[in-house]
Amino acid sequence: MYIDPHVHMVSRTTDDYQRMALAGCVAITEPAFWAGYDRSTTQGFHDYFRMLTDFEPRRAAQFGILHHTWLCINPKESEDVGLAREVLSIIPSFLECQTVLGIGEIGLNKNSRNEMTVLEEHIALAMKHRLLILVHTPHLEDKLKGTHLIMDALRNQGADPGRVLIDHVEEHTVRAVLDRGFWAGMTLYPDTKCTPQRAADIFEMHGTDRLWINSAGDWGVSDPLAVPKCQDELRRRGHLLETIRKVSYDNPRTFLSQSGRFSAPERA
Amino acid sequence: MGTPLTKQAVADLYFLEHRAKVLDLAAFLDRFDRASEPGGTDFRVQALTAALGLVLDGQPDRARRVLELWSDRSTEPIERAPMKGALGAMPIDAKDRR
After folding, report:
1. What domain count does chain B have?
2. CATH class of this structure's domain A2-257
3. Closest Cα of chain B to A228: distance in Å?
4. Residues B33, B19 share a domain
5. Domain spans of chain A?
6. B97: confidence class by pLDDT, cuts 50, 70, 90
7. How far apart are the first and last CA of chain B?
8. Which residue of chain A has the CA closest to B71?
9. What range does the domain containing B63 cover?
């Protein structure tokens, strides 16, 4: 049994939902992200948000999986600040949807000034509506710098770190994120983020409090079954079932339940 | 929470997997050397070989220190994103001045 709190199902097939259900997936949350190309209009985002709030929950429900979502314009599309502001202006019209948990995945990509501007406006929107925040941290060589810029921006705007999940942490960022009171997510990717083995190492070195795992499965090389594979890695090392359950079910449930909308049961 | 495994168990579980990864790395560097442009190099390959010093130094937190070696260590936002993607490492002599 597990929750995958970060997976981009719009990019995956219905067969993936079926395989995830068979592997014990109870619930997922799907952040808005970059489609692999820049959307050219606000209407394009409007349609994407309809997909996230209408179509995907129904598709997941066919397999008994709860589907919740997060809305934003991804940092990869933040260089066009004008378009970003238009997209931000339509998000409030979707906030009454009971499956919307918050604003995400916001953050930085190349750590540019325009990305910072759009990040700050997303944080302000989340705080105005008292929403949870799911943060994307940059890739590879940009992650260390971007993670610190993001945490500083959140602090400067007065965001409660207990209501912010900073995702894609690795060995060089996890300690700082946890020490500043944020929740942290480890993304299990075959090549470019954490492997299940390294995620298990990080649990062993940094503990299991305020830390979760996710697949971030999307249109690239990724694995929607990465969470159960990490469960298996922890089991293989002899960790207790209670520990495995904490990092793959209880922790995401605890964080996400702060939204008042996340409906996965305490004991599935 | 620590690891429940003994050193023997860690070696039993993971040795063959990492033996293969070392061979992959060795073969990659051989392939790079055999490629055209004799004597040419690439900053990413330089960063990779520089990391091997950390891997072999016998000190803890190797993964963290390798990731830090490959990271942009500047602290101010850049003016404009030059691209969407990332390359995986900074030029070793330019890590602090992007």
Report:
1. 2
2. alpha beta
3. 19
4. yes
5. 2-257
6. very low
7. 38
8. A141
9. 41-98
